[in-house]
Amino acid sequence: MRILHLTPGTGTFHCGSCLRDNALIKALRSRGHDALMAPLYLPLVTDREAASPEIPVQVGGISLYLVQKFPFLRFLPRFVHGWLKKPERLRSAARHMGMTSARDLGEMTLGALQGESGNQWSEWRLLIDWIKNEAKPDVVSLSNSLLMGLCPTIQRDLGIPVVVSLQGEDSFLDTLVDPYREQSWAAMRENAQFVSRFVAPSRFYAELMQEKLGVRADQISVVYNGLDATSFSTADPDPNWPVIGYFARMIHGKGLTTLVDAFIELANRGTVTRVKLKIGGAKTPVDEKYVRGLQDKLKKAGYAQRVEWHPNVSFSDKLKFFRNLTVMSVPATYGEAFGLYIVEAMASGVPVVQPEHGAFPELIQLTGGGVLCPPDDPVALANVLEKLLLDDHEREQLTNRGMAGVRTEFSAVKMAERFEAALISARESFIP
Prior knowledge:
The chain is of the alpha/beta class. The strands form three sheets. A six-stranded parallel β-sheet has the order 2-1-3-4-5-6, sandwiched between helices. Strands 9-8-7-10 form a four-stranded parallel β-sheet, with helices on both faces. It is built from 18 helices and twelve strands. The protein folds into two domains: about 1-225 and about 410-430, 3-Layer(aba) Sandwich (Rossmann fold); about 230-410, 3-Layer(aba) Sandwich (Rossmann fold). Helix 10 (about 205-215) links the parallel strand 5 (about 195-200) and strand 6 (about 220). It has helices spanning about 15-30, 60-70, 80-85, 85-95, 100-115, 120-135, 150-160, 170-175, 180-190, 205-215, 255-270, 290-300, 315-325, 340-345, 360-365, 380-390, 390-410, 410-430, and strands spanning about 1-10, 35-40, 140, 160-165, 195-200, 220, 245, 275-280, 305-310, 325-330, 350-355, 370-375.
């Protein structure tokens, strides 16, 4: 089967969706499929070699912004838009992405979801032409549902099914200012009629989005995100210096404030001597002020020297990061659709402590590689971390179960098998 997977890039930092997509395309190829991955908006940033490095950005983020704000610019010569799609210009623009106003963000999101009736369509139309004349897939796969404005045209003009992955879009859409929030959700529900199959990364998220999109339960397949567990070596932390790890984007929403407060609480108790905190993951320019605030808090508490910061690490550095951890926690403040960082930690033999909401209970039940705690409660988190750090036997049991569970349920091979089944279902049920 010839599969075209469309993935928005970030330009400057890793994101869980990009890492999942890259692993998925490679695993589908290993199963004999002719799978391609084309970047949208900005260049892809992956922690391994890109699955389709020969395919350039197909729809440039700069051009989309310009035609959304100034529709007459769609009449500019195509070579100008081609110049704006140069990787160096897109990466430069990515460094300013956090400066986008709330109104602009809402306009851009709704504009993409409006498809043919939106200001951005002159750019998206070129992508449709490229798919039809050059890519020529049997099925189109969209990395997230914010791209669903393409679905009606793909079904009508290309006559092929579309599979849409659900990757936590609700937490983004719900932060948009009105009227864009409600209008975007309405466009999502309308476009959902033209999707042959949805793919959700957890049962939790499948049920959530089924209700929000107004689709039937049998239209959504659960395909857990996967990785190549053999790439991760087993952690070997120094028993004299227990280390709590955090590996996700350095933002409040991922629970970094909660973890820092829990670390200060635990360090103040003195029950876990010499405990340290190691923070890694994506950090963009817009995150700088937030991170400085946490660093000031740690300094005032007297624990700045016990905390390491590792922003925007490479894949090899990420492997080293996990090797030194005793336990890891990313206490997100919202219901995560999945949480690839949790699976990465367990693949490295690091037990996890996660809030009891979103997909986390599901992931921990499937692997047995962690424990749950009340959400948004630094003292409760400190209590669970303290108990686990003082119990060597419990950590060993969690480590063994977690590593085995990841290899069984969350391998890239298993992900590709499940995704393949969703693709076949989409083709069999598709009616042009």
